[in-house]
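Journal club prep — side note

Before the paper discussion, L.F. wants everyone to see what a predicted structure for a comparable chain looks like in C-alpha cell form. Sequence:
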Amino acid sequence: LDQQVRNSYADPNRERYMLIEMKDGTIFESFSLPQMLDGVPVGRVWTYRDVTLLKQAERIARASERQFRDLFEMAPIGMAITDLEGKFLQVNPAFCRTVGYSSDELFQRTFAQMTYPDDLETNLAFYRQLINGEIPAYQYEKRYIRKDGTAVYVFMQVSAIHDSQDLPERLVAQVVDLTELRQAEESLRQAQKLESLGLMSGGIAHDFNNLLTAMLTQASLAQAKLPDDSPALRHIHRMIEASQRAANLTQQLLTFSGRGQRESHPLSLNILIQENMPLLEVAVPKAVRLETLLLPQLPLVNGDEGQMQQVVMNLVLNAAEAMNLQGKLQEHEGENGRSGYIQIITQMQTVTSTKPVRLVTGEWLSPGDYVRLDVVDNGSGMDEATLTKIFDPFFTTKSSGHGLGLATVMGIVRSHGGGMQVSSRLKKGTTFRIFFPALRVVNGWEKEETAVVPPLHQAPTVSTDSKICGQILVIDDEAPVREAVVDVLAVEGIHVLTAEDGQTGINLYQQQQQDIALVLLDIAMPGLSGTETHDRLRQISPTLPIILSSGYTSEPTDVATALRHPHTAFLQKPYRWDELLEKIRPFCQ
C-alpha cells in the first residue's frame, strides 16, 4: 500500500485506482484524483469504499462458474446449451462423442438438423411447449443422426434457463447415449431367439427322427427279405434314399440346436481345407477365383472333422451363390476372365479384455487364443435387414434351398465353443469370421480312418455265422420304434421285452434281469429320462450292456458322462436294421 501511494505521487497528473485488502479480510476500493491549480498539481483527493461483500460475491460467482464449467466439460453424459432457435451455443466432449461432431461443427448446426426425421415432429412439439412455458421440462428417447450417417439412440432431458423476467432465454439438454443398452437388449433378444429356435428345432428333429427310425428299419428289413429280382426293390430303394435325405435334414436341425452328436479330436484346419480343395473347386463356378491364405504352423483345434468340413463347405457355397455371376461376368470381368473371388484365410487371434471381440449374437468372445477362419467374397453383399435374419432356420434369399446352411454353421460353431462375426456391404461383398478355441499343443495331425457305409441302393447284409443270444429290453416312448426293433430282432430269433418309459423298464429288468442280455435305451423320454434310467440300471447291474439311442438330447453333459462307462455305447437315430444289429452283436455274442 505504501508503494502504491508513492507511485501515485510520483505521477501527480495521473488518476489512480487501488484495491486494498486488509489483514482482517476487509476490502476497500480507493480512487485518487489529482488537484490542480493553474495547471499545476497541488495535491490529491482520496476516496475509499468498503467493497468486501461485493468482492466476496464476485469470487463466489467465479468459483461457481469454474465449477460449472468443470462439471460441464467432465460430465460422463452429453450436455448441450442452445438458444431459443435450437442453435448450439455450448457442448461438452461427451455430447461430441455421442454425435460424432466437433464442437466447432456443432456450433454451425441446430438440434433439429441433427434429429432423426421420424423423431423430429415429437421433439418440436415438446420444444414448443417448453418455450411457451406450458411445461417446465421434458424428457424422452430420440435418435440423433451421427456425422457418419448412422442413427444413435439417446435419452434426453431438456429444461429452460430463464432471464430476470422469468422468460426462457436458453435451453439445456442432458443426453445419455443408449447405444450399449440397446446392444445389450439386442444381445438378449438374439440369445432368447436362438434358444427358442434351438429348442423348437431340436424337438421337431427328435420326433421326426423317431418316425424315420421306424421307416428306415422296416424298409431296410423289407429290402433284405426280398429276392434280388423283386420289382418292389426299386421302390424300397427310393424310400430308403428319401428317408436318408430327411435324416440329413434333421441332423442339420440338431446341429443348429447344439444337440447333434459329434466326435471331437485335435485336427488342423489347414489340412482339412487343403484336403477339401478339389471338392470346393468343383463346387465353385469357374468364373470365381478360389484362393487360400493359410497361416503356417497353425495351432490345432478340437473338433468334429465332418462338422468342420461342413462349416467350410457351407460358407464357400454361400459365398459362391452371392457372386451374382450373371451381372458380374460382364460388368467386372478381370484380366484372367474371372469376375469374382472367394478367399479362405486362417490365422491366429488372441482375445483379451483390452482387445475384445463382439460376436454376431451380441455376446463377447471369452478371452483366450483362437484359430480364426475367414471366408471373404466380393459378391452381392447384404443389407442390415438381411444380416439380422441369415442365421434363422429356414430363412433363405434363394429360390431353391431350405435355409439351413448358415443356421447349421452357427450351431456347429457354438457347439465347438466358438463364435462368429459377419460384415457385409451391398454390392461390395461379405466376410464371415469363425473363431475356434486353439489347442496349446501344435503337433502333427493324422486323419482317422472312417467306416465305409454301404450305398443305399445296395441291400445290407448281416453275417449269419452265429445268432445273437439272450433277451433284449427295449425302452422307448415311441411305439413305432419299439415295433420296428421287435420286427428286426425277430429275424435273428431274439426275444424282445418292451417298455414305454424308464420306470417300467427298470421294473421289468429287476423282474427278469437273469434273462436280459442287453438294454436298448432311448435318451429323450418324458418322466424318467434316458440318462436317469441308465444310472439306476447301473446301480442294479454295473456290467449290464446298455446302448443309448437318440437323435436329440437336452442333456449332452449327462450323456457324455454315461458314455464313459465301458459297458455303454451309443446308436444314432435314425438307423437301418443292419446298423442296429452291428451295434448289438459285440455285446451279445
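L.F.'s comment for the group: The first helix runs from residue 2 to 10. Keep this in mind when we get to the figures.
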